[in-house]
Design the sequence.
């Protein structure tokens, strides 16, 4: 008899015992775990399959390549981000308060989910038109900010410039603050992320304010 290895081997679930949705979910979770530990560069379909305990070929039944796998994870991250932004901008807030709350929610959500956030900058996802569902998720999240700015324009809080351009600038601003937090550049504990986000968003959004006589809001392009 040969010598046994130094400990119990991890139990693997044979591919045939996974239901269709179960295996897809398991592969997504496995890939996210790899991203959290080693970054997007370490992700591959075969690596995710090994984590799950199935053959690499089984993963191709769900994702055509690494880009498709990353896109599916990023889509889930964007859907969750959209939900956080919508929840933050709940009815009862003034238009300016809602815009601020949505910006803060973007930053704090990113800080709480760094792996999903970093994934948005993966080279494989640079062209979102290659992944229609990911593009739709991006537009959904962006649309929350777009609608908030449009509502502020309608009340004269935000100047009457091109709505989408203003929303793009605001998105870039909060995204940059989020990156600094995720990378630890503020040098603060995670519990203070909300305070940093609020202070930063207030300064950044100050540039959107209307100046001079009230301007009429343009229609959204």
Sequence:
């Amino acid at each position: 008899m040969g010598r046994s290895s130094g400990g119990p081997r991890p139990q693997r679930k044979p591919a045939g015992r996974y239901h269709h949705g179960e295996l897809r979910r398991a592969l997504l979770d496995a890939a996210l775990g790899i991203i959290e530990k080693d970054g997007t560069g370490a992700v591959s379909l075969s690596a995710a399959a090994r984590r799950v305990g199935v053959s690499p070929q089984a993963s191709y039944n769900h994702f055509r390549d690494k880009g498709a796998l990353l896109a599916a994870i990023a889509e889930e991250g964007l859907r969750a981000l959209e939900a956080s932004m919508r929840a933050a901008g709940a009815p009862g807030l003034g238009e300016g308060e809602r815009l601020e709350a949505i910006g803060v929610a973007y930053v704090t959500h990113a800080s709480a989910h760094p792996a999903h956030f970093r994934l948005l900058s993966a080279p494989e996802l640079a062209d979102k038109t290659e992944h229609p569902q990911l593009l739709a998720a991006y537009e959904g999240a962006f649309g929350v900010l777009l609608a908030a700015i449009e509502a502020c324009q309608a009340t004269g809080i935000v100047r009457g410039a091109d709505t989408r351009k203003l929303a793009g600038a605001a998105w870039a601003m909060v995204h940059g603050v989020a990156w600094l937090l995720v990378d630890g550049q503020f040098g603060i504990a995670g519990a203070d992320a909300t305070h940093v986000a609020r202070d930063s968003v207030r300064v950044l959004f100050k540039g959107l304010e209307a100046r001079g006589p009230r301007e009429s809001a343009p229609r959204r392009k």
